[in-house]
Amino acid sequence: MAAWDDEVIEEFRAGEGRVGGPFAGYDLLLLTTIGAKSGLPHTKPVMYLRDGDRLVIVASNAGAPRNPAWYYNLRAHPTVTVQVGAELFEADAEVIDAGPERDRLHLAMVAILPALAEYERTAGRVVPVVALTPRAPGGAG
Q1: Which end of the chain is more exposed for a tag (fewer CB within 10 A), N or C?
Q2: Would the pTM of this model clear 0.90, i.e. be above it?
């Protein structure tokens, strides 16, 4: 999986956010978190949607029973680095794992990628939603 992620990240950076393959046509960002245990930076390509000034991502982990590693990293270190297109900025990550806001945002993501509904069923867990709020004015704009 790491080699595949590296290829997507390289393509993303070379194309200023444009990629092919399974992410073609979707809004994709690069999320860099600090390892909860290692303290090292880790970058992952993640689909997102905009919700006002925030960018919203989901910790679906393609339907795995456990959240993705980046989720645990941002729980430990909620200041993350985000790249959207050619724009790079810091953001505060807020986990929204229950309630009406989580449901609204999750349904909005499912509308973009219907497979997310199946991921939640196969995972056997409530998939957390994460809102990324840019720290600097103009970030994610």
Answers
A1: N
A2: yes
**Strand, helix or coil at 48?**
coil
CB hemisphere CA count around 88 (13 angstroms): 6
The structure tokens listed for 118 are: 């199946």
- 39 sits in the region (left: phi over 0; alpha: psi -120 to 50; else beta) called left
Tell me if 56 sits within 8 A of 29, measured CB to CB.
Answer: no
Nearest to 42 by CA among 14, 67, 5, 12: 5
pLDDT tens digits, 88-108? 999 999 999 899 999 999 999
Q: Tell me the CB-side half-sphere exposure of residue 107, using CA atoms within 13 A.
A: 7
